[in-house]
Amino acid sequence: MTPLETLAAWLAEAEAAGVGEPAAMALATVSPAGVPSVRYVLCRGIDERGVRFFTHYESAKARDLDATGRAAAAFHWAALKRQVRIEGRVVRATGEESDAYFHSRPRGNQLAGAVSPQSRPIASLDDLRARYRDLETRLAGAPVPRPEEWGGYWLLAESVELWRAGPDRMHDRVRYERQGAVWTGTRLAP
User: Fold this and answer.
1) Residue 122 — very low, low, confident or very high, per pLDDT cuts 50/70/90?
2) Could you report how far apart the first and last alpha carbons of the chain are, in Å?
3) 166 contacts 81 by C-beta, under 8 angstroms
């Protein structure tokens, strides 16, 4: 099993165990000036390339991602005593992938995504809520178009570390590095 297949299996186990927000991952970026930033996003896809998430393309995280082309992410499921770290390049998801995910979201989330200038200053939350209500009224049950500035990214995994808690802090850590399609694992001290 590849480390990304293990990640997918562990995420499924966290969902089955009822872990709160099992798809939440801490996403770390760095600005062109070298300023680090971290925030939580939801993992919305795992395949042999890496992990996928969605955001506003004009957000602070997107500006960092587009400028540097790199990111790191971490999942932590305390109840299962597991965590996963991923590092690699980032690329934008296709328009088709972004459309499909946008339209799979609850309508309220679609409306919010269409009106929110994520990470940008706003006059007030009341003004943003008014824009939401206005769009909701204007569309009157029609599909919400995905804004061009909203879409996904793939974090293309170059390294993946799988961590399982052990007794007496003797944790099981294996870091995998990818060369092409081949993963090589190295056990790390806890």
Assistant:
1) confident
2) 22
3) no
Whole-number mean pLDDT of the chain? 95
Best CA proximity match to 136, nearest among 116, 110, 156, 154? 110
Structure tokens at 129: 């809520």
Instruction: Tell me the angle at which helices 107-115 and 125-139 cross, rounded to the nearest 10 degrees.
Output: 120
Q: What average pLDDT does the segment 130-158 reach?
A: 94
Residue with tokens 């706003």: 122
Q: Give residue-wise pLDDT tens across range 65-101.
A: 999 999 999 999 999 999 999 999 999 999 999 999 9
- Asked if 123 contacts 130 with a C-beta cutoff of 8 angstroms, the reply is no
Question: H helices of the chain, where?
Answer: 3-16, 60-68, 95-104, 107-115, 125-139
Superfamily the domain 3-103+148-188 falls into: Electron Transport, Fmn-binding Protein; Chain A (2.30.110.10)
Catalytic residue IDs:
169
What lies within 8 Å, CB to CB, of 102 at 6+ separation is 54, 110, 113, 144, 146, 150, 151
> Can you give the pLDDT at residue 155?
98
